[in-house]
Amino acid sequence: MSTGTGTGTGTGTAAGPAPRPRTVVALADVTKEYPGPVAALRGVDLTVEEGELLGIVGPSGSGKSTLLHIIGTLDRPTAGSVHIAGHDVAALSDRRLSALRAQHVGFVFQAFHLVPGVSARDNVAEGLLYSGLSRSVRRRKAADALARVGLADRLDHKPHQLSGGQKQRVAIARAVVGEPALLLADEPTGALDSASGAAVMELLRDLNREGATIAVITHDTEIAARLPREVRIRDGQVVADVTHGTASTTGAAL
Ligand SMILES: Nc1ncnc2c1ncn2[C@@H]1O[C@H](COP(=O)(O)OP(=O)(O)O)[C@@H](O)[C@H]1O
Ligand SMILES: [Mg+2]
């Protein structure tokens, strides 16, 4: 008896995983108030589609880290709705939200946050701790991710044996090893010299070209201006959402 569709060549499209939703982040009229009260975010609308690379830029105190915490589901808004990878954050318990975060969001911070005394490879493998994969598979994937960020020859180095730029590459490998729907980087070049910072930004561009969706939080207007999309935030509000053309290299329009 025929099953009708045939078994094909084993690519598994018929029974494969459901495709990811195209919209990775959808914030609607999000406000966040801290006790005081401080209105850290005031009516933010923001949509990020799969495959985007955007900068979220604003001066100190404008609400960037608050926005990162809400997009990354580390915190909930006071009002407004947040959808991440198609999930309504308000509908999830804290436990379900942690699982969503582990599966769909990778984080990179200014200060790297690597585990001291642990090899680069095991630091990266930690990014798969909740994946259900065996330790040996996690370590193999970690080695692959380190190769992807140019550190194939540093697997056994510990954080104190790496430069700042290399540490941030390890942190990026850890953030992307699970292939999250979204990579969130909060001032990823803030602790680096300008050459290492430029290399880290180039790596993020490479990962984006390979398909990663990336939001970079920065106070550095030069970094933001070189990204394909720049969302400017001031006093808790989005004041501009600019798409930069890629054709001009003259700088005449800047
Ligand atoms: N946990 C908190 N409690 C009270 N106020 C806070 C808290 N976190 C941030 N704020 C205030 O919210 C505003 C936005 O802060 P933040 O998101 O950290 O800005 P940025 O990252 O752009 O510097 C600031 O006025 C800050 O003082
Ligand atoms: Mg901040």
Overview of the molecule:
- This protein has 254 residues and is α/β, with parallel strands linked by helices.
- The protein has a single domain, classed as P-loop containing nucleotide triphosphate hydrolases (Rossmann fold, 3-Layer(aba) Sandwich).
- Helices cover 29% and strands 26% of the residues.
- The chain is built from seven helices and ten strands.
- Strands 6-7-8-3-9-10 form a six-stranded mixed sheet, sandwiched between helices. The protein has a four-stranded antiparallel sheet with strand order 2-1-4-5, with helices on one face.
- The longest helix has 16 residues.
- The chain is globular and about 45 Å long.
- The N terminus and C terminus are likely disordered.
- It binds adenosine-5'-diphosphate (ADP) and magnesium ion (MG).
- Magnesium ion binds next to α1.
**Radius of gyration in whole Å, from Cα?**
19 Å
For the termini, the CA-CA separation is 67 Å
Query: Which structural class fits the helix and strand makeup?
Result: alpha/beta
Q: CATH topology, anyone? A: Rossmann fold
Pfam family, one: ABC_tran
Organism: Streptomyces filamentosus NRRL 15998
Protein name: ABC transporter
GO molecular function: ATP binding; ATP hydrolysis activity; transmembrane transporter activity
